[in-house]
């Protein structure tokens, strides 16, 4: 248990930042309790609303700075959906854009000191990934009927291999939401935990002489990790979105 | 005492699981390096393949994250 | 030594027990991500957030941005078309300007040519007139010179005849005037010839 207090007084609690606790009072976490997770999800929604409603209020032909950020995000995802999943996937654009914005804002707001990162929780990313999985599966069957099963039947492979490949394809299809969600949650959790571990070394200078060397090193390491985390926060949202587009392409064009 | 041995095993296992991250590092480096060498051979085709690059990196990195997850589970959940 | 180890072990065990009790309560010991008690809460609020976000985006933000982008594309296309028209107009204006310039140049050349021809004509007339005058004067002068010469020649022959007559008379030769005259004429003509 890392919650152990060592003799020197260094406190390692890298996972404490992920604890979901009620915002008001001290009771149980019920279904409708307002928790820190609720707060930071609401902040993400609020920030997105500010950017996309207040920022684009002017409807200017020559955009203001905030409006051009909104337009840049719009164009970025719109192009991604069109390039990766095809033109007919554009009807899913609002859904994909919602997911992308929620993830990217949660990731970035979670990088603020003392913040809580909703996307570092398996519960959240699993729901996002299951949502994508169900959407893709339902769309696949509605658009192609039983032809969607052709996704698992690799017609370019030798006949003898096809059942084996079909088994592998089915397994990989059902592993998709698992890897999809754990990738995002794991990345966010890992980065934050590593920063926290380095941060735990920082007060060593107050306790022992070796801190003269360790403390600056840990502060440099925190800074470097923070820079990496800014990159990861965006890349993971990008990857989640582009994988959604790839899966959607499979649903719309199941032929291998 | 028995709990201590289990704990020790868990900690050793967590350390071993972290080796998987080295594999992920090799994989990500491979993906990025090969992309770069391909991009330098044919720079005009590189811009269209950035998405593929990120997908490849994401797949390679996910496995490292999985091993990190196993380490975390051994540290905190077992 | 053994005592301290035991003590430490006991301490740890006590701590472990406390942590386990705490963990059962709020799971702060284990991974908070695996504290299933908080799952319904997170899922509920996540779904609420996503639904709110979806409606904000699909009802307000996306149509607005889409229309702004479409409007901008339209404006840009129109502007490019207008620019194309203006460019064409400019090219036409330039062509017209060049044409006018060429015309003016041609007219000027023509005027120059005409005036040059006129001047030439006048000059020719004047020269011709002058030439004629000069010729007339020359002819006149020549006539007078010829006259003078004639008269001079006549005078010479008269003087010669008279002189010859006188010389002959002086020598006492009675010479026939007519014979003297023809002889002198012959001599003058032969000398001239």
From TrEMBL, chain B:
Keywords: ATP synthesis, Cell membrane, CF(0), Hydrogen ion transport, Ion transport, Lipid-binding, Membrane, Transmembrane, Transmembrane helix, Transport. The chain crosses the membrane at residues 12-33, 53-77. Its main location: membrane. Residues 12-74 form the V-ATPase proteolipid subunit C-like domain. It holds the Pfam family ATP-synt_C. It is found in: Cell membrane; Membrane. Gene3D superfamilies: F1F0 ATP synthase subunit C. It is a multi-pass membrane protein. GO terms for cellular component: plasma membrane; proton-transporting ATP synthase complex; proton-transporting two-sector ATPase complex, proton-transporting domain. It comes from the Bacteria. InterPro entries: ATP_synth_F0_csu, ATP_synth_F0_csu_sf, ATPase_proteolipid_c-like_dom, F/V-ATP_Csub_sf. One of its GO terms (molecular function) is proton-transporting ATP synthase activity, rotational mechanism. The record marks 61 as: Reversibly protonated during proton transport. Belongs to the ATPase C chain family. F(1)F(0) ATP synthase produces ATP from ADP in the presence of a proton or sodium gradient. F-type ATPases consist of two structural domains, F(1) containing the extramembraneous catalytic core and F(0) containing the membrane proton channel, linked together by a central stalk and a peripheral stalk. During catalysis, ATP synthesis in the catalytic domain of F(1) is coupled via a rotary mechanism of the central stalk subunits to proton translocation. Key component of the F(0) channel; it plays a direct role in translocation across the membrane. A homomeric c-ring of between 10-14 subunits forms the central stalk rotor element with the F(1) delta and epsilon subunits. HAMAP family: ATP_synth_c_bact (MF_01396). This is ATP synthase subunit c. It comes from Pararhodobacter aggregans.
